[in-house]
Write a structure and sequence with these properties.
The chain is mainly beta and 100 residues long. It is built from one helix and six strands, in the order ββββαββ.
Length: 100
């Protein structure tokens, strides 16, 4: 069995580090547009929660800002309330939005 997810999207929030015990976390949301139009002729966008842990979280905080486009490789994890989130294994920095 394989549980592997690859996403490319725009970062919707400013990443913030949280410490829990000996681990460092960050939870981000990626806006990922669909590749097809809806019945109204518009492209819908999905907002997907991604959890970053330890070194992945630390490097992400250092190099990414809200609005940047990133690639995420990870796996799906089910939460207690039956929602799903992606746990990132690797982040690729694709482009940086100009911040003035």
């Amino acid at each position: 069995m394989v549980n592997q997810v690859i996403l490319v999207g725009r970062l919707t929030n400013k990443p913030i580090l949280e410490e829990r015990g000996d681990k460092v976390y960050s939870k981000i949301t990626l806006a990922t547009p669909r590749s097809y139009k809806n019945i109204n002729g518009e492209y819908d966008t999905d907002f997907i929660d991604v959890v970053l842990i330890n070194k992945v979280a630390e490097s992400f905080i250092e190099y990414c800002k809200q609005g940047d486009i990133v690639g995420v490789r990870g796996n799906l994890q089910r939460l207690k309330d039956k929602d799903l989130e992606v746990h990132a294994e690797k982040i690729t920095f694709l482009s940086s939005k100009s911040h003035k």
